């Protein structure tokens, strides 16, 4: 390795070579590090030592995540009423959840103002109540008394009345007053000055309608509002226009310049790099079905919160383009994810610092496959996962164990873009070589994000691949009165054009489209509800046994279900001569209780217990269940009827049974109850045949253990022979076996 080059004062005019700088916009930045231009006179040396601006590469952090995606959580939080709504920017084309910020109830009519976007928006818009699209007539941007949009589709119409159940007005940010009808009908609660100027807001007038249809028309109170449309207007530095766009590069720039936390002035931004990123994001990329789509689009809701750095909060925007931020000359720049040519071939390094070579990453940072998790428009912006991208040969290379990366893409709404981003993340994790060294001044035009190629002599041939500059910190200092020394400590990370390469015909995978139907958002009941009694339903605690009727069911298929409500009822047998269900009279429903969504057992089954039912052959029980959620309650699902029974048990046989004549045409039957503490009743049967299955129940007596019972059967006639049996029954209705028969003949 050569010694560090000493540059004489005559060489201070050293600058970026224009032909190399043209290879990628990010290299243009280095020419202005000291205020010099390419080919300029030189750099000023002040106080003997000059610290050149450090260019740090801020790596895109990709983690394997689990649980609910942040976008779903944020959307759910934004629908909750509050007087201090979160500051949010809505970008691209998406659903913007409305936050109720002001409301008033007047009779049967609800008036609500929803905040949609904390800045002006482009439009047009489509309004959805509880995820049901509203078809309308009229002008939602007309705030006069006769203006506003009126719903024309069920269930929001109101036949026979002049006004529908739903009316709304939208302020795109240029409104100067509150809608006149809202002000007039809510005098003292909404004023004309309540305009929310500079914000995109929705005012609604909602009539409850008929009582019997209210839960269907308005399952949630206040209704969950989403508005579909084209949102924030974004400045494009390439043409100086303010416009609606879905371009990822322009949206990242907008968030940096207009955020409420720490807006960047243009003087602190490398605008040419953001123009480059915008060009990359707008590139046409082929898709499998034919045609093209833009390379990187960005659609979603960016919520600004306290306690986090700005760069962390806008990370989802960067993830939508697999891009990263970097600093060059004290200015913030962006590096888009696109294949770039190498602008420097490095054949030697200085001995100013030890050459550090890292060949393998930690196993925790390596992935063999990846999926993208994104909000799917055809699933009402609920989370969906792309098909799995498998890195060829990676699993075998790592020892045959698959390791999956789940990449949250909160601002990507197209599965084809999400698939490409999943591949980029997985491939980047496989780029394992890292080099730390010090370069010669001829590499001065490298900045963080530049691509270079190593071409070192043996024994470093295995390291001769393309690298991206992760960080570089040029410094200069006086060597003596006639020369200065330039130092270029650098960290390089392996890269390859294969990371961003994409062949739609072979790599894009088909994905089943969602089938969301906004009209079916009402929560669905469980598929079936079953009912049991006896031992399976009995609840035992120590020596105490509690009989019960148990209903059980699996979860509602609706994701919006948050819990369940159950009720019980009885039917009493009322027609001795009947036979079917018409012989049973229902006595009405009684409240049972509430069961939370998380109360299912390990098998995902929910259970409800009705304790101490009446055990009778003339009374049967039913249980009904319905799901409850953010869109109201489902229909009731009713179980089949069942006769209540206690737990099964073995009951001892009565101890003694005798029969003897007792006067003309009569027989005296005596029995002693079983020696069983659970015995409660003694049953005596009789028949003309010596066969218990032909016997009829004659008497049922309350009799505890070892109690004697005596009964007389009369009217039998002369010389009539009768056979008798006894059985014990416990409190749950369990019967013992028959005793041996006892017989007698009348006199």
TrEMBL record:
Region forming the signal peptide: 1-21
Ranges that cross the membrane: 33-62
Pfam family, one: Phage-tail_3
Key words, A-Z: Membrane, Signal, Transmembrane, Transmembrane helix
InterPro entries: J_dom
The keyword Isomerase appears for this protein: no
Domain Tip attachment protein J residues, every copy: 311-465
Protein name: Host specificity protein J
Organism the protein comes from: Paracoccus aminophilus JCM 7686
């Amino acid at each position: 390795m050569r010694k560090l080059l000493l540059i004489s004062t005559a060489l201070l005019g050293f600058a970026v070579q224009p032909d190399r700088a043209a290879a990628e916009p990010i290299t243009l930045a280095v020419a202005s590090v000291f205020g010099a231009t390419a080919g300029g006179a030189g750099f000023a040396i002040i106080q003997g030592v000059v610290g050149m601006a450090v260019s740090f590469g801020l790596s895109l952090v990709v983690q394997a995540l689990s649980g609910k995606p942040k976008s779903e959580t944020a959307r759910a939080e934004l629908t909750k009423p509050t007087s201090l709504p979160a500051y949010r920017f809505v970008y691209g084309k998406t659903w913007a959840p409305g936050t109720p910020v002001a409301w008033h109830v007047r009779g049967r009519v609800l008036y609500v103002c929803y905040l949609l976007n904390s800045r002006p928006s482009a439009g047009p818009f489509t309004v959805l109540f509880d995820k049901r699209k509203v078809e309308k007539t009229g002008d939602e941007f007309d705030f006069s008394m006769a203006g506003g949009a009126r719903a024309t589709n069920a269930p929001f119409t109101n036949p026979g009345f002049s006004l529908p159940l739903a009316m709304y007005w939208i302020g795109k940010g240029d409104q100067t007053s509150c809608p006149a009808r809202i002000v007039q009908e809510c005098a003292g609660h909404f004023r004309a000055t309540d305009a929310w100027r500079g914000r995109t807001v929705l005012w609604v007038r909602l009539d409850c309608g008929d009582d019997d249809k209210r839960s269907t028309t308005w399952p949630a109170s206040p209704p969950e509002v989403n508005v579909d449309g084209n949102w924030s207007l974004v400045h494009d530095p390439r043409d100086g226009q303010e416009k609606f766009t879905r371009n990822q590069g322009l949206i990242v720039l907008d968030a940096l310049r207009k955020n409420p936390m720490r807006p960047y002035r243009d003087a602190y931004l490398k605008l040419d790099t953001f123009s480059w990123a915008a060009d990359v994001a707008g590139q046409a990329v082929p898709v499998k079905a034919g045609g093209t789509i833009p390379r990187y689009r960005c659609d979603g809701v960016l919520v600004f919160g306290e306690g986090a750095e700005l760069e962390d909060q806008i990370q989802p925007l960067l993830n939508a383009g697999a891009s990263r931020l970097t600093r060059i000359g004290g200015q913030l720049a962006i590096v888009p994810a696109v294949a770039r040519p190498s602008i420097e071939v490095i054949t030697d390094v200085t001995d100013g610092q030890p050459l550090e070579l890292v060949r393998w990453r930690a196993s925790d940072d390596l992935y063999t496959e990846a999926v993208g998790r994104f909000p799917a428009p055809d699933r009402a912006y609920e989370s969906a996962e792309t098909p799995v991208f498998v890195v060829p040969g990676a699993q075998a290379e790592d020892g045959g164990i698959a390791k999956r990366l789940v990449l949250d893409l909160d601002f990507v709404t197209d599965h084809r873009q999400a698939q490409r981003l999943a591949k980029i993340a997985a491939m980047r994790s496989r780029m394992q070589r890292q080099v730390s060294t010090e370069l010669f001044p001829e590499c001065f035009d490298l900045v963080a994000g530049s691509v270079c190629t190593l071409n070192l002599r043996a024994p470093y041939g295995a390291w001769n691949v393309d690298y991206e500059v992760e960080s570089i910190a040029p410094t200069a200092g006086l060597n003596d009165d006639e020369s200065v020394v330039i130092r270029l400590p650098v960290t390089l990370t392996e890269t390859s054009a294969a990371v961003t390469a994409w062949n739609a015909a072979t790599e894009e995978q088909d994905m089943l489209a969602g089938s969301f139907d906004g009209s079916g958002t009402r929560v669905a009941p469980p598929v079936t509800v079953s009912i049991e009694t006896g031992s399976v339903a009995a609840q035992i605690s120590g020596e105490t046994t509690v009989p019960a009727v148990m209903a059980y069911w699996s979860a509602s298929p609706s994701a919006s279900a948050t819990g369940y409500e159950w009720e019980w009822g009885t039917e009493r047998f009322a027609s001795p001569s009947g036979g079917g269900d018409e012989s049973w009279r229902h006595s009405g429903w009684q409240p049972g209780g509430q069961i939370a969504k998380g109360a299912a057992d390990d098998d995902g089954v929910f259970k409800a217990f009705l304790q101490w039912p009446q055990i009778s052959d003339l009374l049967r029980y039913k249980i009904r269940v319905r799901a409850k959620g953010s869109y109201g309650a489902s229909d009731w699902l009713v179980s089949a009827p069942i006769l209540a029974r206690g737990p099964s048990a073995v009951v001892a046989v009565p101890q003694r049974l005798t029969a003897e004549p007792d006067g003309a045409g009569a027989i005296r039957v005596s029995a002693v109850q079983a020696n069983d503490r659970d015995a409660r009743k003694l049953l005596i049967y009789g028949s003309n045949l010596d066969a218990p299955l032909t016997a009829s129940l004659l008497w049922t007596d309350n009799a505890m253990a070892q109690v004697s019972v005596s009964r007389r059967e009369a009217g039998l006639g002369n010389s009539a022979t009768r056979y008798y049996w006894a059985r014990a029954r416990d409190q749950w209705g369990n019967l013992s076996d028959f005793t041996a028969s006892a017989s007698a003949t009348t006199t």
